[in-house]
């Protein structure tokens, strides 16, 4: 990996979209610094469209789509995208699965929740679970003392043995039933919102992230940037970003935006 300071000026001018994770990419120590919001506003002012790609829940994503300086948001690791139209005052909600399928998945996840809490008693259900529509989030270090990675691996095994997909973020293990992830729903969003094929826009997109569940995005986008805190995960990230910031979390994101806009 190379520090983002060395990102070429001629490449900066090509970027028209910034896709970004939220936790420990836009945030720092669990809070959203003003620098992160200011950086997103600066991107917008320079004609660059911002789309968060997150594991956070539908309830949070509804708020972010309305209140943040963003074009749209992909949530719950690809279960949906939300886009708020301020002119029509309408929220567009596009799910991977229909309401009946999501209800059936919820029943299976409720049973799985009890099993995980029994097998890994030191973990907890995420505090934001009440606002989720498609997945189960298990907290291993947000509101509980950090668990050893062996326990995190056990949580993943519980999901996978039940036939669910599981991904590690910087704070949660997220599990769901369905053949989708962050990248799959991002493809749908670009076709339906921007009217473009994601594969044809690679050179115009920058993706920023920080944890193993961002690996499919790191692998797909040539211009991928990891906040410096990604180095903590070591070999758990199967595809590493091409570039890395010098600062962590939201400060790294602000650093990245400063460098990106310096060449425009």
Architecture overview:
With 264 residues, the protein is α/β, with parallel strands linked by helices. It contains eight helices and 13 strands. It has helices spanning 9-12, 34-45, 58-67, 99-119, 149-161, 182-194, 215-220, 249-262, and strands at 2-3, 17-20, 49-52, 73-75, 80-85, 90-95, 124-125, 136-139, 165-168, 172-176, 205-209, 224-226, 243-244. The strands form three sheets. Strands 1-13-12-11-2-3 form a six-stranded parallel β-sheet. The chain has a four-stranded antiparallel β-sheet with strand order 7-8-10-9. A hairpin with a 4-residue loop joins strand 4 (73-75) and strand 5. Helix 2 packs parallel to helix 8 and helix 4 (99-119) crosses helix 5. It is globular.
Summary tags:
264 residues; 8 helices; 6-stranded parallel β-sheet; alpha/beta; 4-stranded antiparallel β-sheet; single chain
Tell me briefly what this model is.
By secondary structure, the chain is α/β, with parallel strands linked by helices. 35% of the residues lie in helices and 19% in strands. The strands form three sheets. Strands 1-13-12-11-2-3 form a six-stranded parallel sheet. A four-stranded antiparallel sheet has the order 7-8-10-9. A three-stranded antiparallel sheet has the order 4-5-6, sandwiched between helices.
């Amino acid at each position: 990996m190379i520090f983002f300071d060395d990102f070429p000026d001629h490449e900066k001018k090509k970027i028209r979209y910034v896709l970004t994770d939220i936790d420990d990419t836009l945030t720092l120590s669990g809070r959203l610094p003003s620098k992160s919001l200011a950086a997103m506003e600066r991107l917008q002012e320079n004609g660059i469209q911002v789309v968060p790609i997150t594991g956070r829940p539908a309830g949070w994503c509804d708020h972010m789509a309305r209140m943040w300086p963003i074009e749209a948001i992909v949530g719950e690791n690809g279960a949906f995208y939300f886009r708020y139209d301020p002119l029509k005052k309408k929220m567009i909600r596009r799910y991977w699965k229909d309401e009946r399928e999501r209800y059936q998945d919820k029943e299976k996840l409720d049973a799985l929740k009890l099993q995980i809490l029994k097998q890994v008693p030191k973990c907890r259900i995420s505090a934001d679970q009440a606002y989720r529509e498609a997945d189960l989030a298990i907290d291993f270090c947000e509101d509980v003392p950090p668990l050893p990675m062996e326990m995190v691996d056990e949580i993943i095994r519980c999901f996978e043995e039940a036939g669910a997909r599981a991904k590690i973020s910087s704070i949660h293990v997220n599990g769901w039933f369905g053949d989708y992830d962050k990248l799959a729903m991002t493809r749908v969003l670009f076709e339906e919102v921007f009217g473009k094929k994601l594969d044809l826009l690679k050179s115009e997109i920058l993706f920023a992230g920080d944890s193993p569940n961002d690996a499919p995005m790191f692998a797909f986008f040539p211009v991928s940037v990891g906040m410096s805190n990604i180095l903590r995960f070591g070999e758990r990230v199967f595809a590493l970003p091409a570039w890395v910031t010098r600062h962590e979390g939201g400060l790294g994101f602000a650093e990245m935006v400063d460098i990106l806009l310096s060449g425009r």
